[in-house]
Design brief:
With about 575 residues, the chain is an alpha/beta fold. It has 24 helices and 17 strands. The chain binds one DNA strand of 29 nucleotides through helix 2, helix 4, helix 7, helix 9 and strand 6.
DNA sequence: GCCGTTTTCGGCCCGACTGTTTTCAGTCG
């Protein structure tokens, strides 16, 4: 997807300009443009074709022409030029926490640092202390920062952050000086990966709370510690930032600390134009500095005549404008989910029995749960041949006859073969309640080939969703290249839903593609891809992707009750709308 | 580099903490 590449280049250009001590607002313009492009609901090429690039927020004539140049040539000459004028090690050094453009440049100019390894050597041999403004403490911090970079490239999966936050919140909740406590930052916005865990506390005695926080047993080291703010690293190498504010500032602080940065900047700019100022303590009139709001987020948004903006939407990708016009979507919640669409039993590569699955699903208040073991050709995962599949169908039917309170649907995660055919005959497929189709082979094929395999599968009247459509594994395997415009069009036409796989390593579709799918009128199915007991709890992460994709109940297939769901399946089987 | 019911030029979000300083620059979120 070229959007990501363009964003990456703008981000790099900002880094280089920063090292060159360019106008900081110019640097910010590049960063802001990068975020705009990254969060775009569609391919920049489409917008460029309409000549509408410069209508995007933060993109003017100059950046629009740079994007056009990239779309035409695959390069931006200004970037190529900038790259030549700066040593790569400078940019590497800026990845180290605590080192910004100024320090990086100083180290490069005065010490001729050649690489991060070289930097480590120079810090260890005390070559850094003695440079203007730097002493032993800076050397220690550089070494600490380098160790942090080596251990972990930075971002962790959402569930790791969730667990770390839960532990710390549990540890502080009962402290007598803690009044409110909440996760904030990208964790509260439920981004798919998180760099550090942010936690907000209200208290009348910040010092005591910070003292308790830095003394928690799971903390390995403390990197900053003040009266209202502290940063630590846990024994699991998770960075945690804690911030303490007085109770009357809870809303303002929660908004500030939740971000995103871009959302906050946009809100603050709006405030400034009205003669107001927003900071983490409240909203103030500039004249006289009188506080007029801040206790709750609701109070702040309504001051600007906006409804409450859900944290998942706060990315400055149109939510402020939508809120001002009263056009924010009503997002689905995890309580709206009526069933889980993707569960493996021990018949293939899961560990649960049918009755265990039924009990777990019932406990969650579901009306239905779909058993979806692998089909024959996925031998490595114990895929079921047609005979075993027929037996499993019978087993589930018998199970339902004697079990009450939930319906177990029988389905399958059927392989899409190389030619786009399904791995089971229609004779088998028609006996199933619901069919998931998935690609498990040929990830390196061309965009055209992979796209056409999926589209052909969608045209099978028994196929109801496409599982983990892009095949990505976060941090391990890139998404394969698909023509999403074509996929969305085919999904809509054939009444096939696209899965949001809720497994934290997958989260596939992504939030951005979920939003594009929704805008294209495509239904989504949120599914946990459960193999073991606790994985049914991952539903929250899939729902969060849908929320970040602006989805409401009506966009999500498993918000339907059982009857409506069966009707949806039957409509496709009747085949009126498929070529 | 962007942007405009205060402006086409002159602004551009705002504050905390650290390490090095005796009043602040750099970095971060």
């Amino acid at each position: 997807m070229s959007n990501l590449r363009i964003a990456e280049i703008f981000e790099k250009m900002a880094d280089i300009l920063e090292v060159q001590d360019a106008n900081p607002f110019r640097v910010r313009a590049y960063r802001r443009a990068a975020r705009t492009i990254e969060g775009l609901g569609r391919e920049a090429a489409g917008i460029a074709a309409e000549g509408a690039l410069s209508e995007l927020s933060g993109i003017g004539e100059d950046l629009a022409s740079k994007i056009n140049e990239f779309l035409a040539t695959g390069k931006i000459s200004a970037y190529e030029g900038l790259k030549k004028r700066v040593k790569p090690v400078l940019l590497d050094m800026m990845d180290i926490p605590g080192i910004g453009p100024k320090t990086a440049k100083l180290l490069s100019d005065k010490l001729k640092v050649k690489s991060l390894d070289d930097l480590e050597k120079k810090a260890k041999t005390h070559k850094i202390a003695g440079l203007p403004g730097l002493k032993e403490k800076t050397e220690e911090n550089i070494l600490k920062g380098l160790r942090f970079l080596k251990k972990d490239s930075g971002r962790m999966p959402i569930d790791t952050a969730f667990t770390a936050a839960a532990g710390i919140i549990a540890g502080l909740k009962r402290h007598p000086e803690v009044i409110d406590i909440s996760p904030a930052g990208s964790l509260r916005r439920m981004k798919e990966t998180v760099r550090d865990v942010d936690i907000l506390v209200t208290s009348k005695n910040g010092g005591k709370v910070i003292e308790a926080f830095t003394g928690l047993p799971e903390i390995a080291s403390v990197s900053a510690r003040g009266e209202t703010k502290s940063s630590v690293v846990t024994k699991d190498n998770v960075r945690v930032d804690l911030r303490v504010v007085p109770p009357e500032s809870y809303g303002a602080a929660l908004m500030y600390f939740t971000g995103s940065k871009e959302h906050n900047i946009a809100m603050r700019e709006m405030a400034r134009k009205k003669g107001l100022k927003i900071n983490e303590y409240g909203v103030f009139r500039k004249r006289g500095n009188r506080k007029i709001a801040g206790k709750s987020e609701d109070e702040i948004y309504s001051l600007f005549k906006m409804p409450y903006v859900e944290p998942e939407l706060r990315e400055n990708t149109g939510e402020i404008d939508a809120a001002l016009r009263g056009r924010l979507p009503r997002l689905l919640s995890v309580d709206d989910i009526r069933g889980d669409f993707h569960i493996h039993t021990k018949a293939s590569d899961g560990v649960l029995s049918i009755s265990e699955i039924a009990a777990l699903a019932k406990k969650r208040g579901y009306e239905y749960a779909l058993i979806s073991d692998h089909s024959a050709s996925l031998k490595i995962a114990g895929g079921l041949g047609e005979k075993r599949m027929l037996r499993q169908i019978e087993t589930v039917r018998r199970f339902n006859a004697r079990y009450t309170g939930i319906e177990i649907l029988i389905g399958s995660e059927v392989d899409i073969l190389d030619n786009g055919d399904m791995d089971y005959s229609d004779e088998i497929l028609k006996k199933l309640d619901f069919v998931i189709a998935a690609i498990h082979s040929g990830f390196k094929q061309t965009k055209e080939k992979l796209t056409s395999r999926i589209i052909k599968a969608m045209h099978n009247r028994y196929v109801n969703t496409i599982a983990h459509p892009s095949g990505r594994l976060i941090g391990q395997r890139d998404a394969y290249d698909l023509d999403y415009e074509k996929i969305f069009a085919a999904a809509k036409k054939t009444k096939t839903a696209l899965e949001i796989n809720a497994c934290p390593e997958r989260l596939d579709l992504t939030d951005i593609n979920a939003r594009r799918a929704r805008e294209a009128g495509v239904k989504l199915g949120i599914a946990t891809d459960t193999h073991t007991k606790h994985q049914m709890d991952n539903m929250i992460y899939g729902v969060s992707v849908a929320r970040r994709g602006w989805c409401g109940k009506k966009d999500v297939l498993n918000c339907l009750g059982l009857k409506e769901l069966k009707r949806f399946v039957q409509e496709k089987r009747n085949g009126k709308n498929i070529d």
